[in-house]
């Protein structure tokens, strides 16, 4: 074990929920509306199968290899060179995805609250904080999720409740008024967001609770993501109607509608606080996973010596990610969904098939399977 720390199943659930929430909280309604139009709130429901499949695959592989991460058991299933090749693909993928997350954070902060601040400075400050948090290990990150995520959920619920007077149910059309196809098309990016739950394949060996408790907690994270996607989709639709797809950050724009008793207005700061908190956890979590996986791939004795160099590499990738905000948004909405599904759903499915073919459908006596 490269990290002696342990987390509980509850902390795992909070980490998984916040990791997905950071991606979808601002742009999810707009991205789904581009394909699903006014059926955008149905797309997360159709996409839910992908989330359940990812959880099942992660748990099934963990039963075969209870003490290994996905980097470790890839070598067992695919051989030394096949496993190292797959491990390098996974590590590059998560490094690239984290750089996109960091760039998205920087573009949002510069575009909304700090327009005169250099983008590199904003991203660099966040990356430094995340590197420091990741160096503390999985226990530190798990405790941070316990501290931030409940507050984030409460703030998000407050914003949604305060928006109720401005909602217009008449903007919600009959279900599938244009057939099933639009909502199915909108479910493709949602499937990619659900596939982010595959992050648990790196974390399961460090969870101290029994498998039954882990499975239940993972389902709680999945249900939390589903409820958040559906609620933010319906709220955005009842506020903006057909113009949801033209909103850059629908939930941020929705906060501008809030006006309570003439003095409680413009609560964009709450949305900003919510998003920065979960984005911090997400970038830290993925950076930790990249460092942990790289140390295992390189067969090092610890992961902490990789935190700083891989952090600066992530920052460099973030600068190279896209020339501007428009191209970044286009890439996140069109290419990343298929990119994410290929790595976080198709590859785990192939790994599970390899484990099932060569070792049977169940582990022997709870022992790790050997080639």
From TrEMBL:
GO biological process, one term: spore germination
Zinc found in the keyword field: no
Transmembrane regions listed in the UniProt entry: 12-33, 45-65, 77-97, 117-135, 147-164, 184-207, 219-240, 269-294, 306-323, 335-358
Cellular compartment(s): Membrane
Swiss-Prot/TrEMBL keywords: Germination, Membrane, Transmembrane, Transmembrane helix, Transport
Annotated GO CC locations: membrane
InterPro entries according to UniProt: Spore_GerAB
Membrane topology: Multi-pass membrane protein
Family the entry assigns: Belongs to the amino acid-polyamine-organocation (APC) superfamily. Spore germination protein (SGP) (TC 2.A.3.9) family.
Protein name: Spore germination protein
Organism (species): Paenibacillus mucilaginosus 3016
């Amino acid at each position: 074990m490269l990290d002696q720390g342990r987390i509980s199943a509850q902390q795992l659930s909070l980490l998984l929920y916040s990791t997905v929430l950071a991606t979808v909280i601002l742009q999810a309604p707009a991205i789904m509306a581009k394909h699903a139009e006014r059926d955008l709130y149905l797309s997360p429901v159709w996409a839910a199968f992908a989330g359940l499949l990812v959880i099942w695959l992660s748990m099934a592989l963990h039963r075969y290899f209870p003490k290994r991460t996905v980097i470790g058991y890839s070598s067992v299933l695919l051989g030394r060179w096949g496993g190292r090749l797959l491990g390098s693909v996974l590590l590059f993928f998560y490094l690239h995805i984290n750089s996109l997350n960091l760039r998205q954070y920087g573009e949002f902060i510069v575009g909304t609250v700090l327009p005169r601040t250099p983008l590199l400075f904003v991203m660099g400050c966040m990356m430094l904080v995340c590197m420091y948090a990741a160096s503390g290990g999985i226990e530190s990150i798990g405790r941070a999720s316990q501290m931030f995520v409940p507050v984030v959920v409460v703030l998000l619920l407050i914003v949604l409740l305060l928006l109720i007077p401005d909602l217009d149910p008449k903007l919600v059309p009959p279900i599938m008024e244009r057939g099933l196809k639009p909502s199915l098309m909108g479910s493709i990016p949602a499937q990619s967001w659900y596939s982010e739950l595959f992050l648990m394949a790196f974390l399961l060996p460090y969870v101290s609770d029994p498998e039954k408790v882990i499975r239940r907690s993972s389902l709680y994270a999945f249900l939390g993501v589903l409820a958040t996607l559906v609620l933010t989709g319906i709220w955005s639709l009842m506020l903006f109607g057909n113009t949801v797809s033209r909103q850059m950050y629908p939930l941020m724009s929705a906060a501008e509608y809030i006006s309570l008793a003439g003095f409680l207005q413009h609560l964009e700061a709450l949305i900003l606080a919510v998003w920065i908190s979960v984005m911090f956890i997400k970038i830290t979590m993925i950076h930790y996973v990249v460092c942990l996986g790289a140390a295992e791939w390189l067969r090092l004795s610890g992961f902490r010596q990789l935190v700083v160099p891989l952090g600066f590499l992530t920052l460099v990738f973030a600068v190279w990610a896209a020339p501007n905000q428009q191209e970044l948004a286009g890439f996140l909405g069109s290419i990343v969904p298929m990119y994410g599904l290929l790595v976080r759903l198709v590859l785990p499915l192939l790994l599970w098939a390899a484990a099932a073919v060569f070792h049977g459908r169940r582990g022997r006596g709870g022992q790790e399977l050997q080639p």
